[in-house]
Structure to design on (458 residues):
């Protein structure tokens, strides 16, 4: 084995690698038997191999090698002290699964004067061949070995999987960049660490054992305290959860209004709806292209128009580029966009208030009935039952009813905005009232209608 200094750490090169094994063993006796078997395969003059390391096969290649875990690499040494912190460069190098490289290196030495060498490294589907971690001291020998492995692996010099730096500095830079060990590599996997098979326990093993025993004592002592704190935390969490459930149920029963939408707060006032719709409704023609206006409904952003065919009316050029009704060709439908208002008038019962601003159903009915009487219009009003929900297994009932109303037969004189006693001004003063549409019905029996919703407390 030889040593190379990379990133301030020593790495060993020149190990002999055995075939992959299904499971790594820790018995020094068994490992020495493996080392002796590798030595026999290297020839009678092979030195005694008592340095050993491991190379784990990549997980993506496990299926190729079935259930094999990794490889064992073996090397020789005369004095163990220079090798105590060294790791196998082949095992630590981040290289492709199929790879061939020849690197000029400067080996590390005790006197500081490095010796020139060439390191050949090969991988085949993640496995390091027996002689895929060789050190040569002449370029000719190294090139000859490289040619052999190129024929063996099919990796040519032009391939991306072949690396051949020309200078020592290029080699050292390339290897140093691909041989950076993380804390998990060092302490978790103990990646590429050399073991002295002549010793029953390495220095790193002894350190690990001491650290393990210390941690065991600390963990054993802390386990009792941790158990107490865990149980205390579980009890406190359960207690807090019970308090939260009780508070939630109390809130559901005492404040049901929080769990239902206050839709009236988002709606514009009746006067704003009139200011937006009426100018566009007033501009509508009562007839066009031989079609008479049957009905117009303004809901704010758009006006929906219904047209009735008259004798001689044009079926090709429909009013407002409309479309014929799918069931009745004597009817056509079109729509117009209504310009938006620059600003809306704030509602007295808008955001920042609650349902206490609403009146009860009887009062709401009285207010709308009085408006209908004062304006000479006809009122249709219906209230629905209170909305109900089940939240966290608790039945919640809305504090208010939602009613639908319609004022029909509205005189033309009332279809305006600005008079303090006007229809829309009166409607705007009713709490919880919204206008969802203003309708114009054509024909001799036609007229104006205003419709919407009203929210009233139970």
């Amino acid at each position: 084995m030889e040593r190379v200094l990379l990133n301030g750490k020593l790495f060993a090169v020149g190990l002999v690698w055995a075939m992959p094994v299904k499971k790594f063993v820790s018995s020094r006796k068994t490992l020495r038997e493996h080392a002796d078997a590798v030595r026999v395969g290297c020839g009678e003059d092979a030195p005694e191999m008592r340095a050993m390391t491991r190379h784990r096969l990549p997980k993506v290649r496990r299926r190729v090698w079935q259930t094999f875990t990794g490889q064992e690499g073996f090397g020789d040494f005369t004095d163990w002290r220079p090798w105590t912190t060294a790791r196998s460069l082949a095992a630590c190098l981040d290289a492709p699964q199929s790879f061939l490289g020849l690197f000029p290196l400067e080996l590390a030495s005790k006197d500081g004067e490095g010796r020139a060498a060439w390191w050949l490294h090969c991988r085949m589907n993640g496995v390091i061949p027996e002689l895929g971690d060789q050190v040569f001291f002449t370029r000719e020998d190294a090139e000859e070995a490289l040619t052999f492995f190129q024929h063996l692996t099919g990796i040519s010099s032009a391939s991306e999987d072949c690396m051949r730096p020309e200078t020592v500095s290029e080699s050292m830079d390339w290897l140093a960049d691909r041989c950076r060990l993380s804390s998990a590599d060092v302490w978790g996997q103990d990646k590429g660490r050399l073991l002295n098979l002549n010793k029953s326990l390495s220095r790193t093993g002894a350190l690990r054992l001491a650290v393990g025993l210390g941690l065991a004592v600390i963990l054993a002592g802390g386990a009792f305290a941790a158990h107490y704190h865990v149980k205390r935390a579980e009890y406190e969490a359960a207690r807090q959860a019970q308090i939260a459930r009780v508070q939630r149920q109390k809130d559901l029963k005492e404040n049901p209004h929080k769990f239902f939408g206050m839709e009236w707060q988002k709606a514009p006032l009746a006067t704003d709806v009139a200011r937006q719709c009426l100018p566009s409704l007033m501009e509508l023609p009562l007839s066009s292209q031989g079609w008479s206006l049957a009905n117009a409904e303004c809901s704010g952003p758009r006006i929906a128009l219904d047209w009735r065919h008259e004798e001689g009316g044009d079926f090709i050029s429909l009013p407002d580029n409309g479309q014929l009704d799918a069931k009745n060709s004597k009817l056509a439908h079109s729509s117009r966009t209504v310009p938006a208002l620059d600003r809306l008038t704030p509602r007295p019962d808008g955001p920042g208030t609650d349902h206490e601003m609403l009146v009860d159903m009887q009062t709401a009915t009285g207010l709308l009935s009085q408006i209908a009487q004062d304006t000479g219009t006809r009122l249709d009003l219906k209230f629905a039952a209170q909305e109900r929900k089940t939240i966290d297994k608790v039945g919640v009932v809305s504090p208010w009813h939602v009613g639908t109303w319609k004022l029909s037969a509205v005189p033309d004189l009332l279809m305006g905005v600005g008079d303090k006693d006007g229809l829309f001004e009166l409607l705007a003063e009713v709490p919880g009232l919204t206008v969802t549409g203003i309708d114009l019905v054509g024909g001799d029996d036609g007229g104006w209608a205003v419709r919407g919703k009203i929210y009233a407390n139970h």
